[in-house]
């Protein structure tokens, strides 16, 4: 009987909701809380394996805002991003990058620099998109004083793959003798 009470108490504690709060610091402060009864519980039998999570309405969904993306859920699919060779063109006075979609990629981070050979190690890319093209702002083409260098990074949960650096060059012609 005593053993049964201990097991019952343990089962009740296992299913109590846990309160978590968002991180704050730097220039960011997230105000929200969630109550999820969750975790990962596996049941196996023969060739089958079944996992479950309780009370997680956002599992598997992606939430985006500005330059940030949040993947909801305790679980995420294992994925391997695929490099997408980008094409760079000038359309009027702005740079346009485009590439072919690949289903393995969840989003694309665009890194921009005014110096060549800068690896995209910055924590914040210049832009993050889920489409297969991106247009930089005005006056990024045709300025002989500034050249822009771009890297398109294919991203999926916890992994990334970088294309080679692409650049937009403008230079003035100097008459000869």
Please provide the count of β strands.
Answer: 16
In the predicted model, the low-confidence regions spanning at least 5 consecutive residues are none
Name of the CATH class of the domain at 58-177: Mainly Beta
- Binned strand content: 35-45%
Provide mean pLDDT, rounded.
Answer: 75
Helix content: under 10%
Q: Tell me the CATH topology of the domain at 58-177.
A: Immunoglobulin-like
Largest sheet entry = 5 strands, antiparallel
The sequence of SSEs as H and E is HEEEEEEEEEEEEEEEE
Task: Walk me through the structure.
This protein is mainly beta and 177 residues long. It has a domain at 58-177: Sandwich (Immunoglobulin-like). It is 7% helix and 39% strand. It contains one helix and 16 strands. Strands 11, 12, 14, 15 and 16 form a five-stranded antiparallel sheet that branches. A three-stranded antiparallel sheet has the order 9-10-13, with no helix packed on it. It is elongated. The mean pLDDT is 75.
What descriptors fit this protein?
5-stranded antiparallel β-sheet, 3-stranded antiparallel β-sheet, Immunoglobulin-like, 16 strands, 1 helix, single chain, mainly beta
Give the SSE map.
Elements lengths: L1 H13 L3 E4 L2 E2 L2 E2 L3 E4 L4 E5 L2 E5 L9 E4 L2 E4 L15 E5 L2 E5 L8 E7 L13 E3 L3 E3 L12 E9 L2 E4 L3 E3 L9
Antiparallel strand pairs: 1-4, 2-3, 5-6, 7-8, 9-10, 10-13, 11-12, 11-14, 14-15, 14-16
């Amino acid at each position: 009987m005593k053993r049964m009470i201990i097991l019952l108490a343990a089962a009740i504690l296992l299913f109590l909701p846990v309160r978590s709060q968002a991180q704050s610091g730097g220039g960011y402060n997230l105000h929200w809380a969630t109550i999820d009864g969750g975790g990962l519980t596996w049941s196996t039998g023969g060739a089958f394996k079944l996992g479950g999570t309780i009370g997680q309405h956002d599992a598997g969904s992606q939430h985006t805002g500005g330059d940030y993306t949040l993947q909801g859920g305790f679980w995420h699919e294992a994925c391997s991003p695929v490099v997408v060779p980008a094409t760079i063109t000038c359309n009027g006075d702005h740079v346009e990058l485009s590439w072919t979609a690949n289903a393995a990629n969840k989003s694309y981070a665009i890194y921009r620099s005014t110096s060549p050979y800068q690896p995209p190690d910055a924590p914040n890319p210049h832009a993050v998109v889920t489409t297969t093209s991106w247009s930089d702002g005005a006056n990024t083409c045709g300025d002989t004083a500034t050249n822009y260098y771009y890297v398109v990074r294919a991203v999926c949960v916890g992994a990334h793959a970088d294309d080679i650096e692409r650049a937009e060059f403008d230079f003035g012609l100097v008459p000869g003798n």
